[in-house]
Amino acid sequence: MKRNSLIQTGSRVAVLGLGVSGRAAVRYLQACGAEVRVSDNRQQQQLLEKEGEFLEKTGVSWEAGGHTSAFLECCDILFVSPGVPLNLPVLMCLQRKGARIMGELALASPALSETVIAITGTNGKTTVTTLIGELLKGAGQSAFVGGNIGTPLFEYLLKGDQFDAVVLEASSFQLDTAGEFRPDIALLLNVTPDHIDRHGSLAEYARAKMMIFAHQRPTDIAIINSDDPLCRSLADEIGSRKMFFGHGQDCHARIAGKQIILRWPEDEIYDLAGTRMDNSTGALNCAAAILAARSAGCSPDRIRAGLAAFRPLHHRMEPVAEVAGVVYYDDSKATNTGAVLTALAQIDGRVVLIAGGRDKGDDYTLLRQSVSEKVRRVVLIGEAAVLLEKALSGAVPLVRAQSMEEAVQLASEVAEPGDAVLLSPACASFDMFNSYAHRGEVFAAAVERLRKTEGSAVPQG
């Protein structure tokens, strides 16, 4: 196990929110000798149904049904899981009394001696994080890949493995509580409206993203998307060594057609033709990952081999099937307007768009121009259907569906050969599904039923 200077034997720590990261935090903190208690927002019966065995096994004190000052005030550190709002009155009160509010990145940071590569942005984080991990491994380096995806960072610290690099996806929620977390290499992929319901404004959301650079030293590396106007405007605030990727002539990783030209300091050419990343979004993701991999010591030849072998993750512009000349795409991971605009830009023909879900405070009017230019009809689902309908009214024909199966059926009825049916919701999934992955799976199953129905149809006459 990796020891931590922040946690001493007898340290009193409260874990708020017993999700995946919360459970990992409890196990690690107890292994460090801390006195741990758990506070969860779920009602007692629900908490015991889901977490009763874990609570009994760890022996922690716990409370359910919300977070109370009486239960938490004895603690020196309040560990907040990413889903816990930071503006809770009890947190603000305890912070004024001297309690330290910390998230996973802040609490784990002192135990990390490896090269740390952290990736944030509205869209593409998981793909780029995974790709960097694969490039490092392909170059012969050992790499832990986790954070906001896969294995929690505390699980890595608990095992005590020593890798060459730690590659972490960092969400805005995690960065809000990152404390003095300092990555050696930090990436900002893009910033478009998302999680406004949590942060309150785009400016506050961007501020949270910029925390990834806050404690970097001048010799550390900051990799920034030059094509994103907001990222470029925020770059002046960064005090570490800046490296840009995008289409501009001043970019360290410049996209030119199907190639990425890297200044290092001599030009290196990375050709994406024939790879699964040969599209506009893939090129940006690869440019960012190449900069990170080269900065971490990977050779050009190993990087080229890694790019050729990489397969994009599920539910990200993933072709599901072609039915009656119409291609169906699962882009369920597109939970904000920026991701939907990116998806629409990658399709050449006309589109029938399936969108909707749980609202996160996004401005859906940002979709109007692209939708009016490319979309034949929008099929609306979920709680946000009324908001999307209001935002897109007059730009394109709209229809509502009560289920994903109905949405796929309605889309198939208006799609013409050469069109694409695109599930790109612009919303969270939790109104109708367990996760964006579950939403994508239900979509794929509905498309498969449609394919079988179309295939079994007997021509008349």
Plain-language structure description:
The chain is α/β, with parallel strands linked by helices and 461 residues long. It folds into three domains: 12-102, NAD(P)-binding Rossmann-like Domain (Rossmann fold); 106-309, 3-Layer(aba) Sandwich (UDP-N-acetylmuramoyl-L-alanine:D-glutamate ligase), CATH 3.40.1190; 318-453, Alpha-Beta Complex (Protein-Tyrosine Phosphatase, Chain A), CATH 3.90.190. Helices cover 37% and strands 21% of the residues. It is built from 18 helices and 20 strands. The protein has helices spanning 20-31, 44-58, 69-72, 89-96, 104-108, 125-138, 153-159, 172-176, 196-199, 202-210, 229-234, 280-295, 300-309, 337-345, 368-374, 385-392, 404-414, 436-456, and strands at residues 12-16, 35-39, 61-63, 77-80, 100-102, 115-120, 143-147, 165-169, 185-188, 221-225, 241-246, 253-256, 259-263, 267-271, 318-323, 326-330, 351-356, 375-381, 398-400, 420-423. A nine-stranded mixed β-sheet has the order 7-8-6-9-10-11-12-13-14, covered by helices on one side. Strands 15-16-20-17-18-19 form a six-stranded mixed β-sheet, sandwiched between helices. Strands 3-2-1-4-5 form a five-stranded parallel β-sheet. α6 crosses α12 (280-295), α6 (125-138) packs across α13 and α17 packs across α18 (436-456). The protein is globular.
